[in-house]
Amino acid sequence: MKTTILGYPRIGAQRELKKACEAYWKKTITKKELLKTAKTLKKQNWLIQKELGIDLIPSNDFSLYDQVLDTCLSVGCIPQRYKSIEQTNDLELYFAMARGLQNDDIDVTAMEMTKWFDTNYHYIVPEFEKNQSFAYYSNKITEEFKEALALGIKTKPVLIGPVTFLLLGKEKESGFHRIDLLNRLLPVYLEIIEDLIDLGVEYIQFDEPCLALNLSDKERAAITTTYNAIHNKFPKLKIFLANYFDCYGDNLETALKLPIDTLHLDLVRCHLQLDDILNSKYFNNHIKLSLGLIDGRNIWKNNFEDSLNVVQKALKKLPPENLWISASCSLLHTPYDLELEKNLNSEIKQWLAFSKQKLEEISTIRNLCLTENEPYLSLYEENKLANLNRKTSKLIHNSKVKERVSNLKDTDSHRTHSFDIRQAKQKEALNFPLFPTTTIGSFPQTKTVRSWRLKHRKGELSNENYEILIAKEIEDSIRFQENIGLDVLVHGEFERNDMVEYFGEKLDGFAFSEFGWVQSYGSRCVKPPILFGDVSRNTPMTVYWSEYAQSLTQKPLKGMLTGPVTILQWSFVRNDQPRETTCNQIALAIRDEVIELEKHGLKIIQIDEPAIREGLPLRKEEWPNYLNWAVKAFRISASGVKDETQIHTHMCYSEFNDIIASIADMDADVITIETSRSEMELLDAFVNFKYPNEIGPGVYDIHSPRVPTLEEIEKLLSKAKQVLPKEHIWVNPDCGLKTRDWPETKRALENIVNAAKKLRQQEIELV
């Protein structure tokens, strides 16, 4: 019996990769220095896995930005607009595809970004044309194998499987389905594989998480075609096929018939599938099974007793040498090392395992299965005691919170009147012009602002002086917004570290790490709160600064909150009760804050829910249950206010077509969405459905450093005006501006305001 993992975090224990990439983008370090940092991180990752007993270590799981973008470069899937960069600088091309590029010679937009299945990780969306060609372009995968080999480590290179790669992309023109491109793509994969085999590769891991989805017969046939072709050309290659995030479901028969060496199972998300596989008439007991027993997406300590029972079940059908012990998915989604945490509550800390500790858990489970397992029995007993302590801890349970959730009524999740009545009252109360302008909430978090928070937290800056500095920053942002003519202002969120962490710090039931960073996209890292117990709000969270900001202006100002589903999704959530129950606890806490903001004079309150699509189960048959409780939780948070109070929500980087009825059922007065990268394509869902409420399609891609021109914004708004009632259109960026710099932010927002003014003038001239 051996051990393996599917992938390891790549940002560095101290976010070294983030810092190096951002320094490279700012031209304060060279390409050579960036690549040196990357090489150091890869070496550290490989060596720690070797030290902690991982037998089959992955390579090519590292990326400077995103693994799907890496695959685009590997197979030469490079959109035409980047061809002018292609021959001059490979790294400039790579980052231009990810972030866009704007200088004196080149102005290209970035590729689209969306969520990686049901995670908060964002990937770059491949673009396909009807006559798409592919070519072996980047040799990153072979170079990384050679890097590890030089350290004496023969790795298992990781490739995103060709079918998943195609399904993750999008057609940029009509008249074909992207899966039809497989016969053009597969030869390039075969070239890459041949190069790897020539280097001595024994195993290749093909990630095909599309096998967790509801696939069509055509898509399943593509899987069969792919792996038959690989096996026929390279019969000695050991194919390690990895599916994760859910069961194989209807795809199980297809997977079991493939000519592969190892089949990976996510036994955290779908623990029942082992029985289905072992009892299937298609199961071949010569195949190896990789048992994903360790949770690759959450930070709770494994229960060794439960995991060993699973292993024993597998051993009744398979010899030990045909079993791998592994994590459920790549450890990309968990922080680096719990040992770095010096200030975490010791009782809570004993319940946790970060990536390094998960490596230890994998090795320990394997070692406990050995005949000579006595040296490891003490670890088994420690694990048993920690899990027992968690079950009985007084830190977790709050009877008042449980009672309040159990007493929820249907009326708690409905506004007093329907949208048409509310809209009329809001128009009278707020008196906005056509195409009202606003932002999504945050303004740039400069290095200076971040330093204030750090000094305040360390006690180096008094509370009084800290508040003076934040107040001045808020006032400056209010004056800027007034001067350029925005219609609805925001306070800028300068006091907030993260849109989830900030609220978690003010709610009971959350704990926080110092170094628990995970990658969200590119160099963007988040530090999810640890939601360990019942959630409640004992004091106001945002009222002080929101009320202060509103006192500075006659214009309406939005109170800014994060919604219950997003707080749930973007935390490391307790796994000892249904997620629905936890979400309702958060919803009631947010509801209390919404009511308090209204009492203090805020007439517009935004409850952000960018994660509502992300939480959707991968299998459609499970959607109705999730959507029912997720939408209800949002409505609980938003429904305690008067008709005149306008509720906004924001969602970004999501496909809405298949859940648009549920989005409408959330009944927010105004929804803002990301649409600029897709050039308003995402708006189609709202148009075809005839979305009844007001909508702000984003016109400024804030994940790119480039500033949209006035003409670009006008073009996007013209598209929106053709398909939406003009009385329903808001004008805004795609998302918050926290990660941007002030100069580009100011130019972009000025263009947004001027574009809205131009549209209003056109309407006057038409009359």
Automatic annotation (TrEMBL):
Q: Where does L-methionine bind?
A: I440, G441, S442, E493, D608
Q: What class of enzyme is it?
A: transferase
Q: Which InterPro entries match?
A: Cbl-indep_Met_Synth_N (IPR013215), Cobalamin-indep_Met_synthase (IPR006276), Met_Synth_C/arc (IPR002629), UROD/MetE-like_sf (IPR038071)
The Cobalamin-independent methionine synthase MetE N-terminal domain, residue ranges: 3-317
Please name the Gene3D superfamilies in this protein's record.
3.20.20.210
Q: Where is the signal peptide?
A: none
Q: Which GO terms describe its biological process?
A: L-methionine biosynthetic process; methylation
Binding of L-homocysteine occurs at I440, G441, S442, E493, D608
**Role of this protein:** Catalyzes the transfer of a methyl group from 5-methyltetrahydrofolate to homocysteine resulting in methionine formation.
Q: What is this protein called?
A: 5-methyltetrahydropteroyltriglutamate--homocysteine methyltransferase
Species this protein is from: Aestuariibaculum sediminum
Taxonomy, top ranks, is: Bacteria, Pseudomonadati, Bacteroidota, Flavobacteriia, Flavobacteriales
